[in-house]
Amino acid sequence: MRDVYVIGAGITPFGELWNMSLRDLFVAAAKDAMKDAAVGRLDGMYVGSMSPGLFVGQEHLSSLLADYLGAVPVPCVRVESACASGGGAFRSAFFEVASGASEVVLAGGVEKMTDFADVTGALATASDQEYEGYHGVTFPGLYAMMARAHMRAYGTARDEIAAVAVKNHENALLNAGAHLRVRISVEQVMSSPPVADPLRLLDCAPVSDGACALVLASEAYAKQSKRPLVRVAGIGAATDTIALHARSDLASLEAVARAAAKAYAASSRRPKDVQVAEVHDCFTIAEIMAIEALGFVGRGRGGPASKGGETSREGPIPVNTSGGLKAKGHPVGATGAAQIFEIVTQLRGEAGKRQIRGARVGLAQNMGGSGGSATVHILELV
Amino acid sequence: MFGIVGYGAYVPRYRIRISEIAAQWGRESEGETQGRGLTNGTGLVEKTVPGMDEDAITIAVEAARQALARAGIDPRRVGALYVGSESHPYAVKPSGTVVAEALGIGPNVHVADFEFACKAGTEAMFCALSHVKAGEMEFALAIGADTSQGAPADPLEYTASAGGAAFVFGRGERVMCEVLHTHTVTSDTPDFWRREGRKYPSHAGRYTGNPAYFKHVVGCAEAILEKSGAAAPDFDHVVFHMPNEKFPIVAAKRLGFSTAQLEAGFLVREIGNTYSGSSPMGLAAVLDRAKAGDRILLVSYGSGSGSDGFVLRATDALEGARGRAPSLRSQLEGHRIHLSYAEYAKFRGKYDVCG
User: Fold this and answer.
1) Domains of chain A and CATH, by start
2) What pTM value is reported for the model?
3) What residues of B are in contact with residue A114 (Cβ under 8 Å)?
């Protein structure tokens, strides 16, 4: 396989974007990405979207989005892997370029969630409907069980979990496109309304609208770009059982660990080489479990590491400088692409006040459901 | 000179405390107390509840009786009667016919029911005023009355309440509050709705804020201020639709009004959101206190969405007519009966009883 580069990136603000429809969101992000790439060619498109059918009653995004982008007859495929749809779209685009089949491919993600759908119900379809859904459990409940398991196995404390939300909200203050730009305290997290014990409202990512797009290209096309060159150094993906109860350990994310192992091997990098990371913090506990699965901290150390500032912008491994899903927002299908957007922005040195100085190696980790699917992408500044 | 020649308002004597509703749903911990009792984010202490024998029609009749008493006219001289409500007891069959009959109005009267979420009352006022202004008739009666609905545990349940206000419009020396300017804005903005056959309305949460309430209320107010050549400090009183405590205060602030200008008509903390009755009742409470020459701005809001604006000025005739009916505040502060949630649920028909 040949090298693949990210030569263009575009994103919409995340939030309750009442004046933008699903197609508006995608087209805005994709146009920005194409403009950024400044390349007169597009061979294919992959767009991650979890559930446009349930959220806005629209399927067949491949035709719709190519049409409204003005890209017809470019082939387009919608990729679905619950909240890992964006990561899946990027992975598919990567292989299309790496294989030599195409030169320039767009990978994006979009979700329009605030059009009065039953959002919790739609999201719950990412769990095992026959074994989990029938019992009435939704994602806050599943992650609450994972939090309980982590607390029992490692003594993780409630205030350590809350520290994740505080840090990510702090980062979002420096991201103009973030959904929740408000400073919060550990006490506010711990006294916010209970959602599924021990998780509270401020442990949960918000319901957001948003889209993101990235342009991937072969070396020949990447070298024409005047922008700082970012190479996809290694990729990995894995699955786990869809139902939480089928796993041997509720306190770890095995799909993430396996996807990470592949990405590290492919890039010849180790966790300590990563200088900035975006991880899938749909709930605060998910970030703690993700940084363990990615090897940034030892098993069971996610809580103390978060509370101790190890994942802050000043810490040894800055995590979710964008604000993460928690505060930047979580338009589910767009999230995986948006994580890569943040890493590309950091590696290009264009992250403004939240810039991690000298960052050359970054990682984006995206997952679906309660960890039933995961992607990990490692990117490097050339 | 044309404008209001009689006004009246009615509130049921039943109340439920916001803390009682919050306790029912285990949400006491979410209520900030603000020194007046639990408000659960609404700013309300309590809200009115219609009695078992009350509905939008009986409330309309009570408010209109007071308006006719203050007007001191023979009801048969009323040429039009409009009732605005989103809780008309019948889907098909007008509320207005019952109201007219009960008040001794007609049969030579034009009657219509209006519906436009929370602005149906000011809509009735707008049309009644226009008839009088055009010289089509001597007097026209406009009423906003509601027994508004909120589904169990829905945020609306903390605010949806009952009450109404009525205004007789006419010309000449009888006018106790002159209408100087009107303005109305409308757009298709579906922030709140109830489909045919549904018992409770649906709403789109925060969407009811900036794109809906504030856009229309602030937009209408700005337009009518420009039309009238007046600025916020020129007014003695201002009334905005009151779905909760926060919205009218924020709208006032954005437009440069002070909370002192809101005060006389600010009823929401004690009565809740009376929907079609809300801003008209605020105006009635202002007229209970206004002095001759006082300038008043009224801007309603109805989901769906639209706002009606009125610039008014109290005249010398107000003082003498005021005492012919009880003030709104005297009804509010009079005998009250506080209900438990179970009684409230029974009063509001929240239980479907078999047989």
Assistant:
1) 4-118+207-222 (3.40.47.10), 126-206+232-381 (3.40.47.10)
2) 0.86
3) 207
Q: Which of B27, B29, B204 is the closest to A116 by Cβ?
A: B204
CA-to-CA distance for A79 and A95, rounded, in angstroms? Answer: 14
Asked if B207's CB is within 8 angstroms of A114's CB, the reply is yes
Q: What domains appear along chain B, each with residue ranges and CATH number?
A: 2-176+319-346 (3.40.47.10), 177-317 (3.40.47.10)
Write the DSSP assignment of B111-133 as a string of letters.
EEEE-BTBTHHHHHHHHHHHHHH
* Minimum Cα–Cα distance from B210: chain A residue: A18
pLDDT in tens, A97-117: 999 999 999 999 999 999 988
- Name the one residue in this structure whose structure tokens are 């020949």: A220
Q: Which two tokens stand for residue B176?
A: 């106790």
Which 193-232 residues of chain A touch chain B by CB within 8 A? 193
Which of A76, A83, A212, A282 is flagged as catalytic?
Answer: A83
Other Cβ atoms within 10 Å of B355 Cβ, number = 2
The string of DSSP codes covering B283-329 is: HHHHHTTPPTT-EEEEE--BTEEEEEEEEEEE-THHHHHHTTS--HH
Contact B204 A16 (CB under 8 A): no
- What does DSSP assign to residue B273? B
Asked if A83 is an active-site residue, the reply is yes
Residue among B48, B49, B31 nearest B40 (CA): B31
The answer to whether B206 contacts A16, with C-beta atoms less than 8 Å apart, is yes
Mean pLDDT (whole number) for B118-144: 98
The radius of gyration of chain A from alpha carbons, rounded to an integer in Å, stands at 19
Complex ipTM over 0.90? no
Task: Give every CB contact of residue A34 below 8 A, 6+ residues apart in sequence.
Answer: A8, A10, A42, A106, A213, A215
Which residues of B belong to the active site?
86, 118, 241
* pLDDT average, residue stretch B246-271: 97
Q: Report the run of H or E that residue A367 belongs to, with start and end.
A: strand A361-368
Distance, in Å, from the CA atom of A345 to the CA atom of A173, rounded to the nearest integer, reads: 17
pLDDT at B28: 75
Q: Is B207 on the interface with A (CB under 8 A)?
A: yes
| Alpha carbon distances (Å) from A237 to A87, A95, A200, A355, B110 | 9, 13, 30, 28, 72
Distance from CA of A193 to the nearest CA of B (A): 7
